[in-house]
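To fix ideas, we quote verbatim one protein's residues and fold tokens.
>
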Amino acid sequence: MKPWNVVLGVDVSKKTIDICWAEQKLSLHADNNSEGFGKFKKWCKDHSIDLSKTFIVLEYTGGYEYRFIQFCESQHIDYRRFPGLEIKNSRGMVRGKSDKADAFRISQYGEERVKRLEPSNPLNKDILELKTLLAFRKRLVRERAGYQNTVKERKHMYEVGDQDMIIAMAGAKIAANDEYTGDIEARIMELIKSDEKMYFNYQVITSIKGIGPINGWMTIAYTENFTSFPDARHYAVYVGVIPFDHRSGTSIKGRKRTSYLAQKELKQELNQAARIAILHSPEMRAYAERKLKNKDYKLILNNVKFKLILRMFSLVKRGEKYVENYRRAA
């Protein structure tokens, strides 16, 4: 285990970073760019912080942290990202919120666990491009849906045909978006196939009933090919399908519920995967039918999502494709 003398917590936003050394109650606010990183290096020098013996802890932000991570890798600084929910749940009762306070709490979280921390793997450029392509594909799909709604509403309200100028323009936009989406999907598959391990894992998880290409792409991207989360449960917390207790003493007796702090796009795509699994997987269908007798459908759907995550991580770990061998008891 490498001896780290300093653990820094970093709260990253789109334009700024807040860095804190909780043990010494030192903090820095800087821009999330090269100039800000230079300011960070000077701050470390002024406070005798040896970056070669420094460990940086930060949260997943969906991409805002990548520029800072690239800086860390260029300077050979060890770092690790954690789901925001995991850090939040470790804090206990917290009053108030600011970027500076968040950086302090992240640093505390790292200091408490420093003996068990392992650095993250270096960023994979193919994974970064994959995430960028998926984000742009999502934008194109949403735009397409908007244009489709425009056509539908205009035809309904004004009883016009395809020769109407607005409908014709919207149709052209839809056709262009379809072409661009196809190009992006082709590039996504090209990226995945260019990496033998990535392509094999993609084939493994899409062999599961319910996990189609889009869920496969997103899972590969956001787990960074199953390297950025230690196990299925940590990923499930990140996605937001793990329910947490909501009770205290005799006055608060809430049911377990999932947190609003989640990667909502992944969760949304898994919703569709869970519905398909219930329809087409005999095992999942039997589970849903059994539980529907006394459980709410939303709870069952959430449980199926967790089962799919467990199945993906288990199969990837074993390096095996899914084989349907369920036999319903007579």
About this structure: The chain has a mean pLDDT of 88. The longest strand covers residues 6-12. The first helix runs from residue 34 to 46.
